[in-house]
């Protein structure tokens, strides 16, 4: 009897890709890892070498259902389908391009990845019979796949429309647009494909879906994840924070403390790298489920590996929760000095192998929402850093009642201090950098229009640059005309000189707003840690709309960094270069709409919070 094939459960994005490959939607791509293809599968080293040696691997879904068998072929990994996924909400809507051509030929094809607006419904009505392709792949829709399908079906009821679900995932790379075009074309055949216009207000009949999908921060599940060395203060801060949460009431709180988890959920695991990863993934899994149901999970394991922390973040976000990472960055010397449990001394004597910080690594997080060094500080004071960050990010407001704050104020600290601290960081002007390709058309328009709109306000500065920016060119002549028509002074326009984007420009900016998602990807490939402050202008506008109107200026930038909407194609501001004045006007209209929505909130003088 032959031994069973090794099995592997791919990541959600890879499972979506598998479905596209099997259904023919990805054609001409027919497998994984073909040269230059965005459809890739990453396998653990042992499985990769098994394939390389001529073996086969079975890909299974998270429940273990075998979906396909992969082998190494001439162009990459060849895929032989086994079983088709049969369950899951709206499975019946997942059709292959061949089935769609057979059942729905003759309809105008319209891709949908967000809630439809009034403007878009009018556009759809004008199109006649339509096929709404709901793009439900991982990371693509602005809401959950089920939410998008429920909303799209509701819109379809008002039209002559068919709805089909397509698991086109977001690969967050420059190859995405090409894949999108080929998938849409495979579904459309010879029928036209029309993109929805940008803008408008979400249809009132979708409000309940929008509400359920985008819960108010007070209702969204939240995972507070403290990471740091043993003795850094994770448990102490986590406990103090939970006490505050419980005193305030209104939320269910679950503690997943490192030590406690190891005595229960993870009993028997060692401190090898593998077992630590298992331990953290277990914590992540439980925390994600808690967040799925709107609860707050407070976790405080060491979690020394970046990759595992990222996996937890992904699990939580997948479950619709928010993930907030606190790096308790107390240095090793201080943790060792405290040595509350006497473990460091033992580790130094070699009595505990693989001890974090001594004989096992701790990878410092680059993506922490807040970093707290507890050295020489009171617990209350260190906790303040966390509660301020939580409040600023729009998750929890754990401010004590004023009377209580006054009572706890010591050594000249007053109840006003947290607010004062937040203000101090915003005293210099907020620096906003606009980015497009050549820096002669869209980004100069954004910069000069924004400067004109801001007038004499000194709380903000605008600049622009291009991912492939020309050096010292003036504004494109057509765009310059549009700028002049819209009240931008001739001096400003004449004084403009284009420039290429540099790392320093990104580092120096508080907020980088790009014309298209591809520009955002370009910037992040260069400066990955800037991910919170680099957004498309449309993505920023949509994200800002979700943040309470009382939050403005630098606080708004921080809040959006933590609660940003996905960058979808609808957000892209298309390039009008050399497409005539009408195209330039349309682009200008789109930019004006977005700037009008966001600028008043970025200008300190008008931001409601102050
Ligand atoms: N080898 C080794 N390395 C690090 N820590 C050790 C080790 N052996 C035991 N301990 C005790 O276990 C606690 C850390 O467990 P965690 O589950 O948080 O660790 S991990 O996230 O799985 O890496 C940690 O507790 P905290 O001090 O609360 O962090 C230690 O008390
Ligand atoms: N500002 C502070 N914040 C948190 N802990 C502090 C602080 N100052 C001193 N400590 C002490 O440091 C130790 C931290 O231990 P613990 O919270 O168990 O750390 P961990 O969970 O990271 O191992 C405790 O004894 C705590 O009283």
From TrEMBL:
- Which regions form coiled coils? none
Q: Where is the signal peptide?
A: none
Q: Which reaction does it catalyse?
A: adenosine 5'-phosphosulfate + ATP = 3'-phosphoadenylyl sulfate + ADP + H(+)
Pfam families referenced in this protein's UniProt entry, alphabetically = APS_kinase, LMWPc
Q: Where does ATP bind?
A: 228-235
Q: Which InterPro entries match?
A: AAA+_ATPase (IPR003593), APS (IPR002891), APS_kinase_dom (IPR059117), P-loop_NTPase (IPR027417), Ptyr_pPase (IPR023485), Ptyr_pPase_sf (IPR036196), PUA-like_sf (IPR015947), Sulf_AdTrans/APS_kinase (IPR050512)
Q: Identify which top EC class this enzyme belongs to.
A: transferase
Q: Which Gene3D superfamilies does this one have? A: 3.40.50.2300, P-loop containing nucleotide triphosphate hydrolases (3.40.50.300)
EC annotation from Swiss-Prot or TrEMBL: 2.7.1.25
Q: Which UniProt keywords apply?
A: ATP-binding, Kinase, Nucleotide-binding, Phosphoprotein, Transferase
So, what pathway does this thing act in? Sulfur metabolism; hydrogen sulfide biosynthesis; sulfite from sulfate: step 2/3
Keyword Phosphoprotein in record: yes
The record places domain AAA+ ATPase at 220-464
Domain (Phosphotyrosine protein phosphatase I) spans 430-601
What Gene Ontology terms describe what this protein does at the molecular function level?
Answer: adenylylsulfate kinase activity
- Function statement: Catalyzes the synthesis of activated sulfate.
Family stated for the protein in its record: Belongs to the APS kinase family.
For this entry, the protein name equals Adenylyl-sulfate kinase
The major lineage groups are:
Bacteria, Bacillati, Actinomycetota, Actinomycetes, Propionibacteriales
